[in-house]
Amino acid sequence: MSFSGTVKEELAAHVSSARHCQLAELAALLLYNGSTCEGGRHLCLETENEAVARKCFTLLKKTFNIETVMRGRQRLILDDETERRVTEALYLAEGEDGKITLTKSVNSLLIRHSCCARAWLRGVFLSAGSMSDPQKSYHLEFVCDENAQAVQLREVLSEFQIEARIIGRKKYQVVYLKEGAGIVDLLNVMGAHVSLMELENMRILKEMRNSINRRVNCETANISKTVTAAGRQIEDILLIRDRYGFENLPDNLRQMAEVRLEYPDAALKELGGYLEPVVGKSGVNHRLRRLSEIADRIRS
After folding, report:
1. DSSP letters along 180-215, please?
2. Domain range holding 229?
3. Which domain CATH number covers 112?
4. CA-CA-CA-CA torsion for 155, 156, 160, 164, nearest 10 degrees?
5. Does residue 270 sit in the same domain as residue 152?
6. Is residue 187 part of a domain?
7. Which one of 202, 227, 258 terminates a domain?
8. Is 160 in the same domain as 250?
């Protein structure tokens, strides 16, 4: 099972104890998965996700004591009176001619409390959410039918300090998160704590690998830089020896030139330890720079 599927299975098993939270989550499931059928006179749920179907049935049973029946992929609420109770409780619009008209945005009264907003987000993710494999990339998104629906979702996420963006994709509006920290916060808000811990473990391992790679790359670059500089220094010293002579150098530069030729792979600090008296890294660098200047004068 994909990581996204694992998250949905965990969320599907999470049922709030408070009825107002159950209503908020049920509203999300019906608004994102529901439709009308039989000429708009009945409310039905269409989904290929069995976890979503089970969750919807569970919430209907708990909140309205409703029995449902399955017809293929369509799950219909049979009793007209119970349909009326559902549409009224969830603030779903209903026309005067008895036809049901589903709104796309949830009524703000259903999510005015933080706990209800959390439950609503859980239902929205079950209905329209997905996320990529966090071992490859961090990406979580919700596919909305209308712009107003996407804007409302982004606003609810911002109330939990989760920054999301909206992008158009064909006829849909997609609300998405690209940061690992934001996805972790959202999993926590929705109550997917097991998945959250798994994601955090993946993030830690990925950060460790990235840190090790950065360190290795840095050390490799430093080694390459040191080798290049040492090669240039030896080239300068050989030029001085052949065309100028070490005997014409001051004692400190002559000793520096001889030590560098003897230890071509040594770092500056190590070279300083071979000199008498011992010289620090800056002192070694200063002497090598003076040798380089002499070599440049010889070349010119």
Report:
1. HHHHHHHHHHHT-HHHHHHHHHHHHHHHHHHHHHHH
2. 219-299
3. 3.10.28.10
4. -50
5. no
6. yes
7. 202
8. no
Residue 155 domain-assigned? yes
Q: What tens digit of pLDDT does each residue of 257-278 get?
A: 888 888 888 888 888 888 888 8
Domain count, the chain: 2
Are 74 and 196 members of one domain?
A: yes
- CB 63, CB 91: distance < 8 Å: no
Question: What span, in angstroms and rounded, lies between the C-alpha atoms of 140 and 176?
Answer: 6
Taking only the tens place, the pLDDT of each residue in 75-127 is 555 567 777 788 888 887 655 565 666 777 888 899 999 999 999 999 999 98
Indicate if 140 and 279 belong to the same structural domain.
no
Cα–Cα dist 43/101, whole Å: 9
Question: For the whole model, what pTM was predicted?
Answer: 0.69
Residue 208 lies in a domain: no
Task: Write b or e for each residue in 62-93: b if 16 or more Cβ atoms lie within 10 A of its Cβ, otherwise e.
Answer: bbbebebeeeeeebebeeeebbebbbeebebe
Residues 68 and 77 sit within 8 Å (Cβ to Cβ): yes
* Residues 63 and 169 reside in one and the same domain: yes
The residue among 98, 144, 109 whose CA lies nearest residue 124 is 144
> Amino acid identity, residue 145?
D
Q: Which residue has the tokens 């940061």?
A: 179
List per-residue pLDDT tens for the chain, 300 residues long: 788 889 999 999 998 999 999 999 999 988 888 777 766 667 777 777 777 888 888 888 888 887 666 555 555 555 677 777 888 888 876 555 656 667 778 888 999 999 999 999 999 999 899 999 888 888 999 999 889 899 999 999 999 999 999 999 989 999 999 888 899 999 999 999 999 998 888 888 877 887 888 888 887 877 777 778 888 888 988 998 888 888 888 888 889 888 888 888 888 888 888 888 888 988 888 999 899 899 898 888
